[in-house]
């Protein structure tokens, strides 16, 4: 039984299938190879420069002050380690599927299923959040054009109900609120976020039509929003008041780390590039470059924009501000620029939805090719050369919940799923056999022996966090259980360090695992319970269908 759960795919078979152009396992043609390094870089920027910089960056700045840029650096370094590991995998396993396929090669089938299921959570919840953010910015743009949509069409059921109840409790007028103006269907108030639903449907149609059209659209939107962000920086720098940067870290390191979910959510998406490996002309060379280039460009933009907006407006004014970039220009009476920023936010969010709607179907497709999901998920459209059925299913899963899910939905679940995937990718690289590519056409992850570096870094961490370690051990019985997560991380960190010493592991993937694990423990425990619930539901599906229908199991049985 255990051998069946951890059966691994052969790297040689994957490469052979990919080179033969029949990689779906059902005799249908593979995907169209049209992406180059520029397309991949722009696609990565399209996924990263989105809802994070236009919305969540405000609350992160409020919690951590201008010093939140250190969290951007920490997150960027973490993603950088992971990007190098992704690049190594992309060079060695140039097919669709991202971390799911990589885990199948290194850890085995059960782990691959778990990571694939986690990635589905990442892309689905992430896109729902972005769609809701898109709807909010889109409504702001319409308001600027004197077009007023009914309140019941631009919000969700729970938010409308809570707003109405809060107004009653405060003896305020309820006239014009979504709850009071919504049409009735029996006893049910018809309150639906229609713009969020529509944009997901439109983007799904674009992703269905073809990767060429999606590529052109994403490239255009990326170019436009980068121009807008550069304009924001160029104008805003003249309105910086350096007094707003004092104190630089008002709430200390804990305040900075409070924004982990918000900041990490801003970076989610660069790994979506790896899902398009099969549509890349030269994945061994171009995918590593695309990942690393996009990560560097986005980090620089994030840090500069954060410094500019916290210099223009005091960090204390960003509490619950959903449109921080537009907000800072309204504070200095430059509403026209704020309106332009709102327009660019709509474009930015659109590009993020597009990249995620491209990425998730390819994970469904990869899992179906392996027999873990029904065959229809692997179907490639004969004309458009896209995973048609998976794209439609993805659109349905994102569009329908975006109608009614509460607008204040946390980004923690998305961050947990992504960080979990990152940990397995970094760990998986350590299990790959060492191969040197002398032709220079493929990426090689640099080997740096971590035998001495990792223990020194862990010792430094223990020294600087000693008070926190002692405090966590003395408060293990508290209801938040956050202390337990910290202790679990500490135990794992020492185990990983010991293995690194004994086996001379490479420092880059090891640091990638440790950084991702630390960011994971900063996410509230309540989100972990939901995450484990999602994982449990996924395991039920696997044992009821995937385990019995695995193509790898069938091959092994025939052999």
Automatic annotation (TrEMBL):
It comes from the Bacteria. Its main location: membrane. Residues 507-550 form the Cationic amino acid transporter C-terminal domain. Gene3D superfamilies: Amino acid/polyamine transporter I (1.20.1740.10). The chain crosses the membrane at residues 40-62, 68-89, 110-134, 190-210, 222-240, 252-270, 291-316, 336-359, 389-410, 416-433, 445-464, 484-502, 507-523, 529-547. Keywords: Membrane, Transmembrane, Transmembrane helix, Transport. It is found in: Membrane. It is a multi-pass membrane protein. InterPro entries: AA/rel_permease1, CAT_C. PANTHER family: CATIONIC AMINO ACID TRANSPORTER 4, INNER MEMBRANE TRANSPORTER YGJI-RELATED. This is Amino acid permease. It comes from Chitinophaga horti.
């Amino acid at each position: 039984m255990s051998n069946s759960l951890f059966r691994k795919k052969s790297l040689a078979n994957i490469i052979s299938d990919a080179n033969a152009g029949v990689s779906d396992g059902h005799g249908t043609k593979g995907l169209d190879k049209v992406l180059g390094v520029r397309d991949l870089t722009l696609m990565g920027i399209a996924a990263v420069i989105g809802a994070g910089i236009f919305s969540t960056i405000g609350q992160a700045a409020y919690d951590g002050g201008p010093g939140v840029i250190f969290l951007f650096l920490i997150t960027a370094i973490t993603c950088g380690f992971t990007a190098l590991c992704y690049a190594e995998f992309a060079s060695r396993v140039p097919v669709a599927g991202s971390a799911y396929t990589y885990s199948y090669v290194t850890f085995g089938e059960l782990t691959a299923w778990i990571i694939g299921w986690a990635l589905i959570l990442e892309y689905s919840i992430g896109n729902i959040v972005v769609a809701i953010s898109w709807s909010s910015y889109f409504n702001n743009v319409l308001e600027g054009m004197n077009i007023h949509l009914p309140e019941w069409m631009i919000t969700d059921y729970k938010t409308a109900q809570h707003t109405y109840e809060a107004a009653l409790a405060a003896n305020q007028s309820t006239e014009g609120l979504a709850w009071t103006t919504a049409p009735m269907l029996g006893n049910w108030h018809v309150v639906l976020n229609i713009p969020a639903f529509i944009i997901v449907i439109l983007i799904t149609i674009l992703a269905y039509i073809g990767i060429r059209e999606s590529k052109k659209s994403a490239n255009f939107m990326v170019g436009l929003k980068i121009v807008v962000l550069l304009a924001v920086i160029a104008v805003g720098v003249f309105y910086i008041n350096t007094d707003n940067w004092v104190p630089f870290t008002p709430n200390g390191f804990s305040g900075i780390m409070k924004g982990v979910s918000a900041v990490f959510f801003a970076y989610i998406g660069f790994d979506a590039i790896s899902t398009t490996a099969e549509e890349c002309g030269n994945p061994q060379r171009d995918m590593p470059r695309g990942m690393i280039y996009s990560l560097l460009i986005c980090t620089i933009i994030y840090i500069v924009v954060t410094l500019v907006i916290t210099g223009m407006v005091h960090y204390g004014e960003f509490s619950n501000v959903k449109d921080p970039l537009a907000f800072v220009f309204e504070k200095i009476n430059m509403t026209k620029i704020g309106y332009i920023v709102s327009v660019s936010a709509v474009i930015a969010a659109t590009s993020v939805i597009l990249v995620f709607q491209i990425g998730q179907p390819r994970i469904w497709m990869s899992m179906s090719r392996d027999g873990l999901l029904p065959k229809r998920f692997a179907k490639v459209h004969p004309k458009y050369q896209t995973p048609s059925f998976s794209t439609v299913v993805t659109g349905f899963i994102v569009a329908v919940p975006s109608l009614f899910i509460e607008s204040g939905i946390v980004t923690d679940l998305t961050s947990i799923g992504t960080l979990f995937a990152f940990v397995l990718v970094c760990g998986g690289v350590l299990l790959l056999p060492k191969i040197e590519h002398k032709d220079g056409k493929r990426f090689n992850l640099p080997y740096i022996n971590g035998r001495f570096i990792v223990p020194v870094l862990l010792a430094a961490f223990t020294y600087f966090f000693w008070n926190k370690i002692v405090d966590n051990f003395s408060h293990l019985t508290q209801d938040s259980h956050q202390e337990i997560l910290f202790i679990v991380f500490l135990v794992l960190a020492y185990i990983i360090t010991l293995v690194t010493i004994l086996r001379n592991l490479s420092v880059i993937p090891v640091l990638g695992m440790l950084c991702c694990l630390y960011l994971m423990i900063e996410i509230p425990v309540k989100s972990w319970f939901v995450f484990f619930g999602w994982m449990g539901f996924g395991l039920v599906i696997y044992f009821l269908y995937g385990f019995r229908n695995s193509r790898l199991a069938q091959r092994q049985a025939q052999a």
